[in-house]
Hints:
This is ATPase. This protein has 372 residues and is α/β, with parallel strands linked by helices. 45% of the residues lie in helices and 21% in strands. The strands form four sheets. It has a six-stranded mixed beta sheet with strand order 1-5-6-7-4-8, with helices on one face. The model has no long low-confidence stretch (mean pLDDT 95).
Amino acid sequence: MSGKIRNYYAGGNTAKGFYNLYDSNLAGLERLFILKGGPGTGKSTLMKKVGKEWSEKGYDIEYLHCSSDNNSIDGVIIRELGCGIVDGTAPHVIEPKAPGAVEEYVNLGEAWDAKKLATQRKQIEALQTQISAAFQAAYDDYAEALAIHDEWEEFYINNMDFAKANDLTLQLITQFFGENSLNKPADIRHRFLGAATPKGPNDFIPNLTADIEKRFFIKGRPGSGKSTMLKKLVTGAEERGFDAEVYHCGFAPNSLDMVILRELGIAIFDSTAPHEYFPEREGDEIVDMYEKTITPGTDEKYASEIAEVEKRYSEKMKQGTSHLAEAKALHDDLEEIYATAMDFKKIEAIQSNIQKQITEHAGGSATDKIAK
């Protein structure tokens, strides 16, 4: 039986530029392979093949998806074995903590024809410059969109009953934890709920909550206290020794969009656009922040002003997406140049060597797992 696959983002194109949470997810790994090499050198394909092989052996796999390419991944983790592989090229540069002992650089550049690439130098440099400019334009658009979003939030912050918001949060903390606590340090992992991608916003909520018994769908408006409530729930979990997967907003990374407490079988997440979902399973429950904390009639009172702000925000977000799509198209052109200079048989040999090292690191545990 194949292992479970969990998909998430650990890096994103945000209003703060490219923002990564890799360290939180790589912490504790005993063996980490950091791939170096240009675009089109087969990094994502290599990681997918390794993940597939170990999944088929019955191991749970975590795929760290790429926010700049919907079809690529930036990493794969086999947490049961304490092993992982990540793309260590810009912008997601991984800083080794114990080079050689834990982390190992893998140079895929060994498989390219440097002389062939040298003949394309000017085109490569031009494409890299254009790609950087497209990403920066996207980040500028998202930064402007965030400023507009702050305007949007003000309508609700100014009409919010903070005492009621605090009471609701305390009710949820009591409902989730009761008097329970665990005699261990909490394992807190920071990730992104979704990401701004060349194809628009994307998330993996259905996958991440597939085996969760109780899901809470937070409804509300910008500025209605959703992120603040989630942050307090994380603090409550940490104080009581409960592990938490903390999912940040892929647009505004200082805000939270979801918390999963797997030991309790609970997930609670911001279920408003662009990641809007509705209850569909037994145990699903809505937490309506607008209804419980915002002055009735606020939507109606400021309808025209809110519509104008929402329109400006939407336009900026669409512009940002178009620049990401532009960067992706240019990156595809760059990948083609590198792909034509690659000896993929050498890449397969590198992949086989990584597989061998993971198997050796796993020792007898791999055989035991397969036997089960």
